[in-house]
Amino acid sequence: MSESFQRSAGRKVMSRSSAKELGAVSHLLVDAQQRQIAAVVIGRGKKAQLVEWAQLSGFGPDAVMVVDEGALQPPADDRERAAAEGRLELVGKRALSERGNELGKLDDVTFDADTGALEDLLIGDRRVHAGSLLGSGSYAAVLDESQEPSP
Q: What does pLDDT average to over the chain?
């Protein structure tokens, strides 16, 4: 089942074991080399917590389910702290080619809700396969410009 970063923002995060609401998705942390969601970020700033994708028991249209409250962890390193502060969010970032050419702004990202694998990057009216993602950081996402837009 395909899902998008835009639709995921604000989705409730629930504990499967206690049925408690643990917060809401603020954004998704991506491993650009694997082209995969690494973690779900809940909240922002100093109160933000992360749940590794492997700790999710489901990513449904109404809620994100985690095994239990123990799955929530504070940011463990600089990359996770940057994610908690919203500096690594892909949506809204500049998209640059590996040569430094401006390709536009990333409007959304689609992914497989079962596996967390990235599918497509939406840049304006273009849909680019996620396989073109070479890296991402606080300034921009870098794409392989030789990749053709998906139909």
A: 92
Domains of the chain (ranges, CATH numbers): 2-84 (2.30.30.240), 94-143 (2.30.30.240)
Q: What is the pLDDT of residues 5-15, one digit of tens each?
A: 999 999 999 99
CA distance 121 to 133: 8
Strands 140-143 and 102-112: unpaired
Tens digit of pLDDT for each residue in 88-139? 999 999 999 999 999 999 999 999 999 999 999 999 999 999 999 999 998 9
Rounded CA separation 1/115 (Å): 9
What token pair was written down for 56? 């999710």
Residue 7's alpha-carbon distances to 4, 26, 108, 109, 129, in angstroms, are: 5, 11, 9, 10, 19
**CA 130 to chain CA centroid, nearest Å:** 12
In degrees and rounded to multiples of 5, residue 55 shows phi and psi of -90, 0
